[in-house]
Design brief:
Organism: Pseudodonghicola flavimaris
Main location: membrane
CATH architecture: 3-Layer(aba) Sandwich
Strand content: 25-35%
Order of helices and strands: EEEEHEEHEHHHHEHEHEEHHEE
Radius of gyration: 18 Å
CATH superfamily: P-loop containing nucleotide triphosphate hydrolases
Protein name: ATP-binding cassette domain-containing protein
Bound molecules: adenosine-5'-triphosphate, magnesium ion
Number of strands: 13
Number of domains: 1
CATH topology: Rossmann fold
Subcellular location: Cell membrane
Largest sheet: 6 strands, mixed
Keywords: ATP-binding, Cell membrane, Ion transport, Iron, Iron transport, Membrane, Nucleotide-binding, Transport
């Protein structure tokens, strides 16, 4: 469980997040949604300790994030950044192997290699494992970065727009993996723009707007016409198709 208390963050001296108090449950998939510029990536980066809060607290399983030593944090939390810079002269397997670094410190054991292969297989990258990243398509690169995150096997998984560049079959595969990770007891937080996907996979939803929490609660409550129309300042319809909620704008 990750909890934030009155969290605020400033970037270049400008307040970007204000008074964020959320509780992101363990063993659940939380979707972070909201318009461009709402502060979703900033929140995710702050939870991952890549940005420092101006004030407020972040607690992971009741423990102050500031008190967690870096090595321990690397074993506990992994993050897919929205704009991750990756070295082009690395193969997919090299990149995914970096995910094992906090465990292996550069000396991969047989168990580490198995985890690397498993992550590669889960992301449907077996045919690309020995290819250099700069020879891959956008979606293949994105999948390689997700595989690196999964190989870390952390209790907390933060994914910023993991579906960017993915075709619909691979998007589904990634959301199923996120679901499996949550079902295995991990705290999974995913930034999503596709609200139909959020409705289908998330247990818990945090809706952000202009640096604040606009709504937080069970997916059925937050993925509603009223909340979403207000959030995006545009008419949003939520229809039922085959027993599932589908979010539409016309
Ligand atoms: N380095 C920076 N300095 C100043 N302002 C910044 C900086 N980085 C981001 N911002 C601003 O902070 C706000 C939140 O940005 P953030 O990237 O968290 O939004 P987001 O919700 O992830 O949006 P998107 O859906 O477009 O990814 C935006 O208004 C953005 O312009
Ligand atoms: Mg973002």
């Amino acid at each position: 469980m990750i909890e934030t208390r009155a969290l605020s963050v400033a970037l270049s001296g400008k307040p970007v997040l204000a008074d964020i108090s959320v509780a992101l449950p363990k063993g659940r998939l939380t979707a972070l949604v909201g318009p461009n510029g709402a502060g979703k990536s900033t929140l995710l980066m702050t939870l991952g300790r890549l940005l420092e809060p101006a004030s407020g607290d972040i607690l992971i399983d009741g423990r102050d994030l500031r008190a967690v030593p870096p090595r321990e944090l690397a074993l506990q939390l992994s993050i897919l950044r929205q704009e991750g810079a990756i070295g082009p002269r690395l193969t997919v397997r090299d990149l995914v192997s970096f995910g094992r670094y906090p465990h292996s410190h550069g000396r991969l054991t047989a168990a580490d290699r198995l985890e690397v292969q498993r992550a590669i297989d889960r992301l449907d990258l077996a045919g690309f494992a020995d290819r250099y990243l700069d020879t891959l398509s956008g979606g293949q690169k994105q999948r390689a970065q997700i595989a690196m995150v999964l190989a870390q096997q952390t209790d907390v998984i933060l994914l910023d727009e993991p579906l960017n560049n993915l075709d619909l079959a691979h998007a589904r595969r990634v959301m199923r993996i996120a679901r499996e990770e949550a079902d295995a007891g991990r705290t999974v937080i995913v930034v999503l723009h596709d609200l139909t996907v959020a409705a289908a996979y998330a247990d818990h939803v945090v809706a952000m707007k202009a640096g604040r929490v606009a709504a937080e609660g069970p997916s059925e409550e937050v993925i509603s016409e009223e909340v979403l129309s207000r959030l995006f300042e545009t008419d949003v319809s939520v229809a039922e198709v085959g027993g599932r909620r589908v979010v539409l704008t016309l």
